[in-house]
Design a protein that fits this description.
This protein is mainly α. The protein has two domains: 1-65; 66-148, F1FO ATP Synthase, CATH 1.20.20. It is 90% helix and 0% strand. It has four helices and no strands. The longest helix has 48 residues, at 68-115. The relative contact order is 0.09.
Length: 148
């Protein structure tokens, strides 16, 4: 898939996500998280669809009798593209999960510390464990980029 086609697909999708986030935050701040998660799901489905189109496009190119050297180059470039897309999905998914976890654990930690300030250390450990989810996604992304 050419970069032009990818940008034609990606730019309106990003515009929809940003617009829905802004509208959700203005009208109903409490429902903004649900709208953002729905938008993230749509973006993830679009990324999987683009990956499927790329994979089938590479398969169609090999069955059309393309030279062996061109087939090897296109297959390796599509594999690298798939690894980079997987890394992006890993970072995005883990960051969203970590944000949700930190929101809940941070609020609970602040509420607990307002009653008993001496539990600050234990509360921060729990919040740090929630932030670890994003680090796991980053590690997976580094592994995938290393294989690309």
């Amino acid at each position: 898939m050419s970069p032009l086609v990818t940008s034609i697909i990606a730019v309106p999708l990003i515009a929809v996500v940003v617009t829905s986030a802004v509208l959700a935050l203005r009208r109903r701040p409490r429902h903004a998280a649900a709208v953002l998660l729905g938008s993230a799901a749509v973006v993830m489905l679009a990324a999987v669809g683009m990956l499927a189109l790329t994979a089938t496009g590479a398969a169609a190119g090999t069955s059309a009798g393309v030279a062996v050297t061109e087939t090897t180059t296109s297959t390796s470039s599509s594999a690298a593209w798939a690894a980079l897309l997987g890394a992006a999905i890993a970072v995005a998914g883990s960051s969203i999960g970590a944000a949700i976890a930190v929101a809940y654990t941070g609020a609970a930690a602040l509420a607990a510390m307002s009653e008993r300030p001496e539990i600050f250390g234990r509360a921060m450990v729990v919040v740090g464990l929630a932030e670890g989810i994003a680090i796991y996604g980053l590690v997976i992304a580094v592994i995938l980029i290393g294989k690309a």
